[in-house]
Amino acid sequence: MTTPFGSYELTRFPADPRDRLRAWDAADEYLLRHLDAGTGERGPVDLAGAGQITVVGDRWGALTTALAAHRPTQITDSSLARAATEANLDRAGIGTSKSTVTLLTTRDAPPARIDVLLVRVPKSLALLEDQLHRLAPHVHEGTVVVGTGMVKEIHTSTLNLFEKILGPTRTSLAEKKARLIFCTPDPALLAAAGPSPWPVTYTVDEDGGSGAGLATVNHAGIFCADRLDVGTRFFLQSIPTNTDGARVVDLGCGNGLVGTAVQVADPDAEVVFTDESYQAVASARATYEANVRPGRRTAEFLVGDGVAMLAPSSVDLILNNPPFHSHQATTDATALRMFAQSRKALRPGGELWVVANRHMGYHTHLQRLFGNCEVAASEPRFVVLRAVKRESRPRPM
Asked: Per the omega criterion (within 30 degrees of 0), is the bond before 240 cis?
């Protein structure tokens, strides 16, 4: 990536030479050009004397790496984005010492005072709403607020959130299908900013299979946060819950409803919740605590890359509803990585259960990886697949 601040070799995380998706896009480039030269009436931003710079939602660390000389603070919900940022900073010879970059998560307290706020618009409008509410008390009248995103990511509802929570907002002209958002903080709005409306809680209805009657807590950014999505609903009607004290992983746990349903059905189960989203794991913990009586076996909550952090052959059952998007891009790379990690983490005889849109064709990948795959349940849109780890390893993918 070539910018006014230098040229950088950037990768997503985990780095994969076969991955054709870049670690930056035109929205990142547009914002960096603006910060160097200014755009329209706003003029250039004097980063050297700007004070505290906060970068929110940096996808893979492109913005943070380019601005590292100005000691920014990055706030992200993605542990993979954080890992990518660390790797890209190291690759650029910068590192993450206290004298350069500060890395925070969406669950951490923001900097006390923010003088320049740079927002990469997230896919989730709820996550943007939550973050703007959390950041508003730390913004002041003189804060420079600039957002960026691709044209297809910036809607009237996006601009309305900036205007409602921070102050008057307008957009730039489009360049390479990207836009900038300019927001002028209004002291009256900042003073009146209330708490975030997130998290939200609902109770699963009687058609929710093994999740019926459970309270579900959703922090902002969780997929289908105000209701039970149809894929999970179908999964909950199919998964095994009589696990006989097994070690069970809710992989890509989201709000943790699947793993919690297993724990409620089998108090002796040892459940591990894992997701790359800090918001998701916080939701899973809250859902678990809302439904599981104190004194039962304590669950484990992990933020990271799938089950890569688990020891090989240490798990009996993995339950997975894999994503098929990476931000705006449709890809099966995340799901395939989850499947490969699962095979390594499972004990011989252990099982991977997957729910997915039928058209994704995951049965082919599971058959190749595990040497077997059966349809445990199906309906016109979704399919539940079951693969068993055998003693002998099938031919590699």
From this structure: no
Give the model's pLDDT for residue 98.
Answer: 56
Report the run of H or E that residue 305 belongs to, with start and end: none
How many CB atoms are located within 10 Å of the residue 45 CB? 18
Per-chain mean pLDDT for the chain = 92
How confident is the model over 249-270, as a mean pLDDT? Answer: 96
Tokens of 28: 């990142």
Which residue has tokens 């999970």? 232
| Contact (CB, 8 A) for 45 and 38 | yes
Tokens encoding 1:
């990536």
Write out pLDDT tens, residues 315-373. 999 999 998 745 455 568 889 999 999 999 999 999 999 999 999 999 999 999 999 99
The answer on pLDDT for 254 being more than 80 is yes
3-state percent helix, strand, coil for the chain, nearest multiple of 5: 35, 25, 40
* Three-state DSSP string of 160-172: HHHHHHCCCEEEC
Q: Residues 126-138: what's their mean pLDDT?
A: 97
All residues at 6 or more sequence positions from 68 whose CB lies less than 8 Å from its CB, including other chains: 89, 92, 94, 100, 101
End-to-end Cα, the chain, rounded Å: 32
Give the largest Cα separation in the chain, rounded: 67
What's the CA gap between 224 and 254, in Å, rounded? 10
Evaluate whether 237 touches 270 at the Cβ level (below 8 Å).
Answer: no
Whole-number Å distance between alpha carbons of 309 and 164 = 41
Q: CA-to-CA distance for 10 and 4, rounded, in angstroms?
A: 16
Residue 256 falls in which region: left (phi positive, over 0), alpha (psi -120 to 50) or beta: left
Task: Tokens for 168, please give them.
Answer: 């008057």
Q: Which helix (H) or strand (E) holds 14?
A: none
**Separation CA 270–CA 253 (nearest Å):** 15
pLDDT in the model for residue 40? 47
Which amino acid makes up residue 286? Answer: A
Identity of the residue numbered 260: T
Supply 324's token pair: 């098929």
Query: What is the torsional sign of CA 153, 157, 163, 168?
Result: positive
d(CA 288, CA 297): 11
List all residues 6 or more positions away from 365 whose beta carbon is below 8 Å from its beta carbon: 332, 335, 336, 339, 397
